[in-house]
Amino acid sequence: MKRKVLTSLSILALTGSIVSFAPAHASTTQTQEKASTTQKAQSKDAKKLINDAYNIAAKKFDFDTKRLKTTGHITDKGSYYEIPYYNTDGVGGLNTIAVYKNSNKVTVFENNTPQNQEYVGKIDLSKYDLKDVPKE
């Protein structure tokens, strides 16, 4: 009795798909390139809003600005702009500064839990051109 050995070509014929193999670091490198491209594409106004919102929160809560940093990204979440920040010591996870479009209120919440928001101040969003902020 003869045994059939499946070769990669016969598997390809059976499945009708192509499987490609890439080193694990390849996708990480592509993700980093996309992130840096997105960051470069952000307007000066978006970067200014990130800095202004962070500074308001830092002043209110006495942030250690050498340890607590923003990711440099801003996302339009519909009713508010999300600005993530983190502790460079690696403690505490990702936290969020939210700037609400209708009220111009700036709030901070930890571990992406909007139920635990704390009001930190206001920003006049009419001073910023934010049409290029990516939407989610």
Class by helix and strand content?
A: alpha+beta
- In the predicted model, the low-confidence regions spanning at least 5 consecutive residues are 6-29
Distance between the termini: 59 Å
Q: What proportion of the residues form beta strands (DSSP E)?
A: 15-25%
List the helices and strands and how they pair.
Layout: H1 8-15, H2 24-41, H3 44-61, E1 68-70, E2 75-76, E3 80-87, E4 94-100, E5 105-109, E6 118-122
Antiparallel strand pairs: 1-3, 2-3, 3-4, 4-5, 5-6
Key features?
single chain, 136 residues, alpha+beta, 6-stranded antiparallel beta sheet, 3 helices, 32% helix, globular
Describe the protein:
By secondary structure, the chain is an alpha+beta fold. Strands 1, 2, 3, 4, 5 and 6 form a six-stranded antiparallel sheet that branches. Strand 5 and strand 6 form a beta hairpin. The chain has three helices and six strands; from the N terminus they run αααββββββ. The protein is globular and about 35 Å long. The longest helix has 18 residues. It has a domain of 85 residues.
Summarize the structure.
The protein is of the alpha+beta class. 32% of the residues lie in helices and 22% in strands. The chain is globular.
